[in-house]
Amino acid sequence: MLQIDAVSFSYHKKPVLQDLQFTVGRGEHVAIMGESGCGKSTLLKIIYGLLQPDNGSLTWKDQPILGPDFNLVPGESYIKYLSQDFDLMPFVTVAENISQFLSVFYPEELDKRTQELLEMVDLVDYAQIKVNKVSGGQQQRVALARVLAQEPEVLLLDEPFSHIDTFRKNNFRRNLFEYLKKREITCITASHDFEDVLPFADRTFVLKDQRIVAKGPTLELYRKPKDLYVATLFGEANQIPIDIVKSYANTKRKIIVYAHEFRVSSKSGIPVTVVKNYAKGSHFLVEGLCGPQKIYFNSDEVLKLESEVFLNISLETINLRLREN
Ligand SMILES: Nc1ncnc2c1ncn2[C@@H]1O[C@H](COP(=O)(O)OP(=O)(O)OP(=O)(O)O)[C@@H](O)[C@H]1O
């Protein structure tokens, strides 16, 4: 188990992370989410042993993870960190960049493992091309195969799909996370893309203002976000006064409603005036106004600007969001 205990960190006296406390089990997949600059990469670098925390301690299987103040060569051998800059050997082929890190002595076994990893990252056709001749997205995939070749016990992924095209991304994410689960590799992924997180991470931690402000099973965080910040990490969301939703409600509370949770009706519901339509492919995201309250909701079809439509939310959703966490 990875244990992070009361860890704080600052860059030149500017606090970035404060009093972080969590554990990650063997083979577990945890996601770290939060807005840009909230400290996701910093946290991964501390776990890897590249940055020295100001306070607190880190252990893996009850053994301390030492920071750069105590390690001549920073970075623990059983942890691999896939950073946002890939750190490849540019004048060496894709295949050699990967096979160099395989701890296999027999040539046949070496070829087989290299091939397996090339297939995993979908780069078989590029095996003999020098890395400086392949695209940014392809380099990101080579970098990933390289860290997998080293058979880490803990894998830290920093925005691992940021350079990979949508066409390949979905399949690739599924393959990678299945591969890690099968081998019981503990994985921590920093991302601000919920599609990297929602289908794959067992648990998610949300960082904001130097602290973990929400954590739990990923689906639970999504279904019952504690506030608009958490909800927005998972998609287009609104925070709406409950008396708009139910006119008889005698409370000033607000509830979170995702854009896709509204149903559009021409007859009854919350009255909104259509302000703007945004094409999303499978649907339109519509900006509407209910008095001064801006509401974003999904519609199957484009809606006429300045027309009035009515929005409905299921009772189940209202009750779910009204329930205290
Ligand atoms: N080497 C550094 N020296 C000083 N400040 C830094 C350094 N690296 C990062 N920071 C600052 O620390 C904060 C956290 O940065 P970090 O890169 O960890 O955020 P992040 O959540 O990973 O962001 P992103 O999602 O944009 O990658 C930011 O305010 C950043 O400007």
In a few lines, what is going on in this structure?
The protein has helices at residues 40-48, 94-99, 107-120, 136-149, 166-182, 194-197, 218-223, 228-234, 242-245, 315-322, and strands at residues 2-11, 14-24, 29-33, 55-60, 63-64, 79-82, 154-158, 186-190, 203-208, 211-217, 237-241, 254-258, 262-265, 270-279, 284-290, 293-299, 308-313.
Task: Kindly describe this structure.
Residues 2-234 form the ABC transporter domain. Keywords: ATP-binding, Nucleotide-binding, Transport. It comes from Cerina litoralis. InterPro entries: AAA+_ATPase (IPR003593), ABC_SmlMolc_Importer (IPR050093), ABC_transporter-like_ATP-bd (IPR003439), ABC_transporter-like_CS (IPR017871), P-loop_NTPase (IPR027417). The protein has two domains: 2-224, Rossmann fold (3-Layer(aba) Sandwich); 236-322, Nucleic acid-binding proteins (OB fold (Dihydrolipoamide Acetyltransferase, E2P)). It has ten helices and 17 strands. It has helices spanning 40-48, 94-99, 107-120, 136-149, 166-182, 194-197, 218-223, 228-234, 242-245, 315-322; strands at residues 2-11, 14-24, 29-33, 55-60, 63-64, 79-82, 154-158, 186-190, 203-208, 211-217, 237-241, 254-258, 262-265, 270-279, 284-290, 293-299, 308-313. The longest helix is centred in the middle third of the chain and has 17 residues, at 166-182. It starts with a strand and ends with a helix. 36% of the residues are buried. Adenosine-5'-triphosphate binds at residues 11, 16, 34, 36-42, 192. Adenosine-5'-triphosphate is lined by residues 11, 16, 34, 36-42, 192.
